[in-house]
Amino acid sequence: MEQDRFVRLNSPIWEELEKLTTAIRTGGIRRLSADELMRLSGLYRRTSGSLAYAKSHGYDRKLLLYLNDCVAKAYAEIYRGEPFTIYNVKRFLLHDFPREFRTQSGPIGLAAFIFIFSAILFGYLVYTRPECAVCLIPESMIKGIESGITPEGELSRGAITSYQKSVMSHQIMINNIKVGIRAFALGIFFGLGTVYSLVHNAQLIGALAALSAHQNQSILFWSLILPHGVIELMAIFICAGAGFLLAQALIDPGQYSRLDALKLRGKEAAFLMLGSIVLFAVAALIEGFITPLPIPPWSKLIFSGIVAALLYVYLIFQEPSRQA
After folding, report:
1. Distance from first CA to last CA of the chain, Å, rounded?
2. Radius of gyration of the chain (CA)
3. Residue 177: what pLDDT?
4. Biggest alpha carbon distance in the chain?
5. What is the pTM of this model?
6. Among candidates 99, 101, 102, which has minimal Cα distance to 322?
7. ∠ Cα 154 214 114 (to 5°)
8. Where are the domains of the chain?
9. CA nearest to 214, candidates 302, 142, 153, 154
10. Cα separation of 308 and 312, whole Å?
């Protein structure tokens, strides 16, 4: 192919790669939309291919230098990490993570629907057939509810030192993060593993809620679940939504190979996972320090409502951050 024709056919690709590279350099990679991120990989590969083709056909040095510069700059921006600064942490927590949550509201909403639907289904099953509870709930929990005291209820009635609360909060956070990571990682099995993780966790919540209703312990049950559960469940939904992003890359990679699509979606999913860890930490603090307090159940329910409102304002009711 003649050089002039080669340049005419491929220059739009090179120019678009330059444009996206400049956008990353001036505003950070998070300034690109999901579609632009998906396209960036293809543009980089095609421009690299153009460079190799130009070298093999002996095109002039000026063109080779231009293409080499495009590829080098794109590589540097795509693979460099942003410096860890207080400003970046603040921007991530206050702007980037909530914006990514809204961008990925589809898979996160799907995760929430699967969980809530499954919890209602298992709750209805146990409420209409209480004998099924033994197949869905550990025996210790069943005995606790039947005696009017859940395991958390026992904690709320006893004196716990600040050190014990701190240790318990740490253990709860680690356990919840494991649940979230499992929901995310199992997405690699075309999303089926993520669905299983959601249903498995919904089974316990739904069955316990129904059994508590049978024992007239609903207010106590929800007062022990909701203060931390509002944030904790949202974090699990986010992790599961990240798992569905992996599944989407495998099921519908679009114009990319499954490996390339998985890399691109994996970056978005990892961004969600990082934010969910912060939510898990907050939920663990509430579960370790607020949930065990010997205060009336209704006050904990009011606290839960306040937490839900603040979470809504944080994740949804925000002005989009300014674009570069």
Report:
1. 39
2. 25
3. 79
4. 85
5. 0.69
6. 99
7. 90
8. 3-82, 94-315
9. 142
10. 6
Are the C-beta atoms of residues 269 and 286 closer than 8 Å to each other?
A: no
Would you list the DSSP string of 133-184? HHHHS-HHHHHHHHTT--HHHHHHHS---HHHHHHHHHHHHHHHHHHHHHHH
What are the pLDDT digits (tens) for 41-50?
Answer: 788 889 999 9
Higher pLDDT, 133 or 19: 19
Average pLDDT over residues 244-270: 86
Residue type at 30 in one-letter notation: R
Assigned token pair, 105: 């509201």
Distances, alpha carbon 178 to alpha carbons 19, 127, 162, 171, in Å: 40, 30, 25, 11
DSSP 319: P
pLDDT tens-place string over residues 258-299: 888 888 888 889 889 999 989 998 988 888 888 888 889 899
Amino acid identity, residue 263?
K
DSSP element (H, E) containing 130: none
Q: Which amino acid is at 225?
A: I
